[in-house]
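Comment thread on ticket #2218

A.B. wrote:
> Attaching the input chain for the structure job we discussed in standup.
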Amino acid sequence: MLRTGRDLEILDTDELLAAMGAGMLDRYSGQSAFETTYAAVEQLAKHGYDLAAWLDDLGIELGWRRK
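C.D. wrote:
> Ran it. Output below, let me know if you need it in another format.
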């Protein structure tokens, strides 16, 4: 859970480990999920816990679209 400009908290790690333990997720996929999560944590911390700032640095601009 990201609290913009403040911090973040990784949730549901126990569920991921349980799925791996139950054979619902292979070790490679579980490891990949953890590596992806912690890479995102590192980048968010580098950008002051601001998702828009991180995405902007990547050249990605998000906006609202009305239907």
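A.B. wrote:
> Thanks. Noting for the ticket: The helical segments are 13-21, 27-46, 51-57.
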